[in-house]
């Protein structure tokens, strides 16, 4: 049975997916103004979800990776909109950060499970 916090978090997560899809749809449709506006609620919602899940290590690291991914995605979009696609290097930093968070988590999780067996 889900707790009230889990249900509320799930509703926010679903809203976040909706925001993210609007942002990316604006990106591929080249609706610059709406796309730029959508960056803020999309990233803010991702950060809020991360904050809600801060007490659960698995959820925390995955949500931190999502925050990095959306940040990278937004930087890339801004670069395509306004900077002749020259921001990919900056976006890669956030993609690598998100991936690194997950790799480190799973390496330590794997090592911890091997040691305790």
How would you sum up this structure in a few lines?
This protein is an all-alpha fold. The chain has helices at 4-29, 32-52, 57-82, 88-116.
Main β-sheet description: none
The value of Rg in angstroms is 16 Å
Report the uncertain regions. Answer: none
Structural class: mainly alpha
Termini Cα gap: 30 Å
| Bulk shape | flat
Count up the domains.
1
Output the keywords.
single chain; 117 residues; mainly alpha
Structure explained in plain terms:
By secondary structure, the protein is mostly helical. It has helices at 4-29, 32-52, 57-82, 88-116. It is flat and about 50 Å long.
What is the fold's blueprint, element by element?
Blueprint lengths: L3 H26 L2 H21 L4 H26 L5 H29 L1
Helix pairs in contact: 1-2, 2-3, 3-4
């Amino acid at each position: 049975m889900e707790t009230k916090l889990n249900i509320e978090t799930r509703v926010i997560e679903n809203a976040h997916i909706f925001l993210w899809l609007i942002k990316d749809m604006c990106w591929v449709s080249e609706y610059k103004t709406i796309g730029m506006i959508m960056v803020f609620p999309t990233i803010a919602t991702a950060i809020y979800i991360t904050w809600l899940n801060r007490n659960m290590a698995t959820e925390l690291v995955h949500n931190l990776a999502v925050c990095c991914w959306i940040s990278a995605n937004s930087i890339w979009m801004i670069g395509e909109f306004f900077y002749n696609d020259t921001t990919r290097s900056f976006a890669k930093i956030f993609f690598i950060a998100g991936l690194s968070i997950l790799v480190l988590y799973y390496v330590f999780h794997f090592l911890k499970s091997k040691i305790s067996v």
